[in-house]
Each structure stands twice: as structure tokens, then as C-alpha cells.
Please model this.
Amino acid sequence: MKNLTEKLREEKFLSREEFKILLAQGGEELHNAAREVCESVFGRDIYIRGLIEFTNHCVQNCNYCGIRSGNKNAARYRLSPEEILSCCAEGYELGIRTFVLQGGEDNFYTDERLVEILRSIKQNHPDCAITLSVGERSKESYARLFDAGGDRYLLRHETANAEHYAALHPAGLTLASRKKCLFDLKEVGFQVGCGFMVGSPGQTLDHIAEDFEFIRELDPEMVGIGPFMPHADTACAGEPPGDLQLVLNALAILRLMKPTVLLPATTALGTLSKRGRELGVLAGANVVMPNLSPRAVRKQYMLYDNKISTSDDAALTKSRIAEQMKNVNREIVIGRGDANV
Ligand code: 5AD
Model:
């Protein structure tokens, strides 16, 4: 084990079999090595992003996701531009300098509408970064969003194995298309984030090893890794959630593979375990993403069941997270927290 952790630390890569061994056995030694590497790059700093879930309308019907189009029990909403701007203003007061606009794939949000929103956020907060997370679009659309002020883009690849991708998604969605979007986003100039769920139905350790291989190829600035969590109104309702240790091992491996990567301790990880975010940081994560969405709509952006902080406001969510970070000797910093420090 020591050997594999050391090898990963030195060579930044392992064979598929070695990845599988480290994923399965991982543990404290691996997490400690990842934490040390993270500290050597970022010190005690934790970057903070304010998540604004601005629409839960979605044309896609992904098997695992609570806001899939086929879920007739989901009460749909869209925030108005004014509501989005007021979330940003509230976040700014709390020291947040990156806003993440996340939504389902909602055709209401044409390029024109998104461009308008990006421009007004940048006008109000020129010192802030904007991250978009609005799914698959054309390269032309990505270019327009970048030109209007988008800085970063999150689009999880979900799984780098084509068959597994097909099993998790409805016909029409393909891994090839997802990958093309990610490479397009990079070419357009965005700082790019991919990522995957740990424990999604049908996932094997081989698949996660393939995820690492794809991540090496894409070379993203950010990677989102969290546990799969079941949602009652989906085809994956009866499936077990992802395994905590496996999530932590995956985070630690990523940190050793890519020392400067921006790696969040996700809300899903905080939902899986009370101490999830702390444990994530102890395994090499360096980003937290408190929710800035208005309280009234939080319960409606339910990607999975039992999501935390759905009845808190932004200030409380942020102060809870700040407390958790203090527990593990970390400090949230005010700043954009761009890639390549
Ligand atoms: N459990 C955990 N994560 C989920 N996501 C969607 N549904 C679930 C779920 N049931 C993740 C996907 C998506 C991101 C926005 O949320 O990975 O890319």
C-alpha cells in the first residue's frame, strides 16, 4: 500500500490494476499523503463557491437524477434574473467571490438569456468569477457564454465507460457527446471541471480506474466527486448510496494525481455522512460549495433524497461550513480561488 501511495505521489499515475488496489484498500495512509500534498499547494486555505440552483426544469431524463424530466412529482421553478442577482449580492456580503450557476438542461435559457444574466452579475461584481453548470450545449453556445463573462464550467462526465454511461442515461445521451462538450469547453477557454459519482448503479472499480484515465487525458482544472445517493422518484430508488471510504479514496487519489486540482468536498458527501465534508478535506479536498439558492426553492432542487441544508439560509449554511473547516484546521478564504495558484 505504502508503495502504491508513494508511486502515485511520485509518478502521478498508476496502472489500472494498481488503481483498483488503492481504491479498495486506501485508508488513512493514502488520505494523509493526499492531505500533505494539498497543504503543500494550498496551505490551510479552503476556497468557497456559492451555488445558485436557478432552474430545476430539465429536458434530460437521467436514470439517477431527481430532477429528470420524467419525474412528475418534482415541482418545477425558475429564478428570475433579479432573484439570481439578489443571491449573488447576499453571497458577496458573506465573502463569496465565485458564483456557480447550476441548473437542469432548460431550453428556456437561451444563449441570449444566459448572456444577459452573466453580464449583469459581472457588472454588479466585477471582482467575482462565474462558474456555469448548465449541461451539454454547442461549442458556439459555450463560446458566447465565455465571451459574456463565464470563467469556469462544470460538466461531470459521470462515468468514462461508454457502456456504463449508456446504462445510466436514456437513449440519445452518449459518453462521446459528453466528452466532446468537455474538450469544446476547454478550447473555448473555460477552466473546466469534470467528475463522477462514486457508487452509481452498475459501477465497478474498473470503471473508476477508467475515470482516472479519462481525467488524465482531459486534464481539467476541477473535478467533482461525490457519492451516488438514491432518489425515490427515479429508476435507481432502491440502490444503496456510494461508500464513504471509496469516495475518500477516490478524492485522495485525485489529489495525488493532480496536486493543483480544485477538488470540492461535495454536498452529497456531507449528506452521506455528518462529517463528510471534514473527512473530504482530510483526504485532500480544498473547495466547499455552500448553497445560496433562496430557501423557498431549495427543497425543489432535489437531485437525491435527504439533501442537507434545504431549510437553512445562505448565511447559516456558510457559517456551518466555516465551522466544519475550522474543525479540521482549515480556513475559508475570500477570493476567486482560480486554478493554477
Ligand atoms: N446522487 C448523487 N449525485 C447526483 N447527481 C445527480 N443525481 C445524483 C444522485 N442521485 C450529480 C450528477 C450531476 C451533478 C449536478 O449532480 O453527477 O452531474
User: Anything to note?
Assistant: Residues 64-65, 156, 158, 197, 226, 228-229, 231, 268, 303-304 surround 5'-deoxyadenosine (CB under 6 Å). The first strand starts at residue 45 and ends at 48. The mean pLDDT is 97. The beta strands are 45-48, 50-55, 98-103, 129-133, 152-154, 191-198, 222-227, 287-288, 331-332.
